[in-house]
Each structure stands twice: as structure tokens, then as C-alpha cells.
Amino acid sequence: MDALIELNEVVAGYAVPVIGPVSLTVRAGEIVGIQGPNGIGKSTLLRAITGVSRVFQGEIRRQPGLQVAHQRQRPVRISPMPLLGRELLKLTGADHSAPPDRLAHLLDNRLDRLSGGQLQLLQIWACLGGRAQLILLDEPTNNLDPGSVDTLIHLLMERDRSRAVLLVSHEADFVGRVCNRVVEVQAWR
Ligand SMILES: Nc1ncnc2c1ncn2[C@@H]1O[C@H](COP(=O)(O)OP(=O)(O)OP(=O)(O)O)[C@@H](O)[C@H]1O
User: Fold this and answer.
1) For residues 43-50, average pLDDT
2) In a domain, 75, yes or no
3) Per the structure, how many domains does the chain have?
């Protein structure tokens, strides 16, 4: 299989269908964006890839052995968390690639003493620099000021280019700057 993942006419939801049909393909090295109005089911589609939501119709084909990392829209923040930034990277396997300079000042801080935006950037790098070949990012610019959005773009560009990213974002400017392709999704009707 050439692609990392292929969605073929996928309809996903929970007790009832929410989104679709959606077809898309993500290949190694690509950054693909998913766009659509609030509440249409974009997060639900990412959850279908990780098996958390239900696939009603269609098919999701994964490259054999594919590992997926998922940065959720509102990451759970467990407090207190006496874990250092560099320990988070080690736990996720992300210490194998040197963290970018822009994150260096966060590595010796406890996770529960980082700001929401700092924690988010570190968690995104833990996904991008970890073992997964496919990284799912749900609204990665949430909580980020313009300087941090620049850092996020830098992290995306610095990732190992064999990795692919499938991201959901309502920030058209950000999507235009980082994505190779954008897929417009529709609600199930
Ligand atoms: N665990 C769940 N069980 C049942 N319904 C859910 C669940 N999570 C979300 N939904 C419903 O699925 C629909 C789509 O939600 P989802 O969060 O996927 O949309 P979205 O497009 O990502 O929204 P936004 O752009 O606001 O982030 C909503 O009506 C929501 O209430």
C-alpha cells in the first residue's frame, strides 16, 4: 500500500452518523488539512481513525504496522504533574530527534508549570518527534499567540519528512501556510 492511510467514503459518528461520506488519502511526507464548519464532525473523523468513534459506512485502510499519534483538541491536563518537559519527550520516544531550539527553554520545566500554549507546543512536538508515522492534530493553533503559531509552523516544517500529518483547523491562514492539500468535509445527511 503506497499511502499511510486511505479513507474511502467513510461515514463516522457515535450512536448515529455525524459526518461523511469522506474520502481522503495521506502519504508519507504530506500535511493534509481538514476544514468544515463548527460541529460538522471533524474531530469525530479523526476519532474514527483511532477507533474511538464508529465507522458506519465506507472503509479506512491503514498501511500495515502504521503507528498513529493523536493530539486532541482539548488535551487533558493532569495536575499536579511533576514530570519535566524532557521526560515527556523521552516517554514518547521523541528524544531520538533533537528538539528544536525554540522548545529548549521548556525542557527543564515541570509540565504543570508551563502555560497552556507552551504545554501544547511541547505535546505537539512529542507527537511529531515520536514513533508515529501519522500524526493527527486537532485545532493545533488553539491557545497559541501569533509567535507561538510561528513556532508551531517551524515544528511542522522541522519534523522528520517521512512523517505525515492530518490536521483539523479553522485558521485558514495557518492551513494555507502548512498544508499540501485541504479536504472540505460535509455533515451526514
Ligand atoms: N462522544 C460523543 N458522543 C456523541 N456525540 C458526540 C460525541 N462527541 C461529539 N459528538 C457530537 O458529534 C458532533 C460533531 O462533533 P465534533 O466535535 O466532531 O465536530 P467538529 O467539526 O470537530 O466541531 P468544532 O469545529 O466545533 O471543533 C456534534 O454534534 C457533537 O455534539
Assistant:
1) 97
2) yes
3) 1
Q: Is 44 near ligand 1, meaning CB less than 6 Å away? A: yes
CATH code of residue 69: 3.40.50.300
Q: Give the distance (Å) from ligand 1 centre to CA of residue 41.
A: 5
Predicted pLDDT of residue 75: 65
The count of other CB atoms within 10 Å of the CB of residue 153 is 15
Assigned domain for 153 exists: yes
pLDDT at 6: 98
ipTM of the complex in this document: 0.96
Q: Domain of residue 65: give its range.
A: 5-184
**Distance from the CA of 56 to the center of ligand 1, in angstroms?**
16
Please report, for residues 28, 65, 111, 156, the alpha-carbon distance to residue 73 in angstroms, rounded to integers and kept in the order given: 23, 25, 18, 17
Res. 145: pLDDT tops 90 = yes
- In this predicted structure, what is the pLDDT of residue 43? 96
Q: What is the C-alpha to C-alpha distance for residues 54 and 177, in angstroms, rounded to an integer?
A: 32
Tell me the CA–centroid distance for residue 30 and ligand 1, in Å. Answer: 26
Q: Would 189 be classed as within a structural domain?
A: no
